[in-house]
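Fig. S4 source data, part A: sequence.
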Amino acid sequence: MNINTRISIRVPAFHGRELPEEGVIVGYAALISHLELPVPIPEIIALISDKNKKYAIEGWKVFTPKHKPEESIYKQLVFALKYEGVNLLVFKKIFETLPTAEVLEILRKEPTGMYSRKIWFLYEWLMNTKLDIPDLTIKKAIPLLDEKLQFAIPGISSPRHRIINNLPGTINYCPLIRKSTKLEHYISENYSEKKQVYLKGLRKDVLQRASSFLLLKDSKASFTIEGENPGNNRAMRWGKAIGQAGQKTLSIEELVRLQQIVIEDRRFIDMGLRKKGGFIGEHDRSTGEPIPDHISAKEEDITLLLSGLIATNEVLQDQAYDAVLAAATIAFGFVFMHPFVDGNGRLHRYIIHHILAKKEFTQQGVIFPISSSILDHIDDYKSVLESYSHPVLDHIKWKETEDHNVTVTNDTIDLYRYFDATKQAEFLYDCVDDTLERVIPEEVTYLQNYDVFKKYIDHHFEMPDKMVSVLVRFLEQNNGVLSKRALKKEFSALKPKEIKAIEVNYKNIFFEE
């Protein structure tokens, strides 16, 4: 590899993506290609247009010729930090690729410059080593993450580098989230406050009943997402666990305890943290060979990754950091690691409940039925999982085991530590919005309509509560009309005029625009 050759790239298409117009690829994408780094290409690629226009479209940030960086690793890194933000995975692999002497040469170009200081800090933080450079004596400290580009925490000062480390994570787990237009809009809407105002307007008894129904609904939805159809007892048992989310501290021991609640039949499953490789996908029907869609973290990396995830969760308890972003960061990282043989999906969604409750996004005792919304948007959910898994697959080397599992043969831990969680955060906020605007109001409206209908039935027929419930269920199943079977059996005592009146009142109450 010759590090002095041209770094920026002029091609009609790049890694299967057609360029929006003619130009040269620069920044992180160019460095990944130039240094042959074993990492996915960033979701957003920087392009210097041949024309004098600057704009952003899906998958691209387009800049004018005057923005074009010089053909050196340092200047490409400066461009990337300035316009693309920090990419921890790319920096880690660059530092592993370049000799220390080359890194020192890069840092000497502008020894007190803000970008040199950021690169220096990142080297010592990521590589856990100290370079032969004296501490800085200049006064002003600068933030590592540019908060115009990425979400950050208030941060801790590093006097040696005069850098404020505002990374929302720890060395062993630190996904980053870009400040996309969608996320900034959602955060400005202050959904937590909107939810509290909405809930305060409800009668206490309606709220309590809605919470009970939504808890069971959310539990069943979480199983359905995994292709399971649990009985009410199993769903209620898991619903009880979800209802306690936020009360206990998140830990490896707590996750193991929760897995024991999720998995009912343990005869064929090795419980606890995985002791072998894992993947999600299919097997070849003829040979049994694995066909992975996702490969889980190596079994020997799981304890360190989970410890990092839990430590980062503590960092993100800072009230300045948005609750939904924190939930996406921790919950999706957990499911990408896939630390258990089974139960990962349901625990991943439990973690969302846990963090929203812990950061007081949700009112204590009121479940936020996020799994119901996820189930209603299952294709989007799969797509957002694949947006991480599929690019990463290209950089995981594996071989088949005797039992048709996989064993990973290269170092992959950083792929699970440092990734861009923007798409996952956007999806979770979409679900939060849907839950607040549709799922909860629909359940509350249903209960309010039920009460009105029950009052009408009580006044005219004096039916027992249980029979009213059966009546509503029959009407629901047949679009507001009682079936012949219901009229012959449970409601044979009703007269034709009474049947007509019941059906009309049901439709007027439940189908009202």
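Fig. S4 source data, part B ends here. The longest strand covers residues 290-295.
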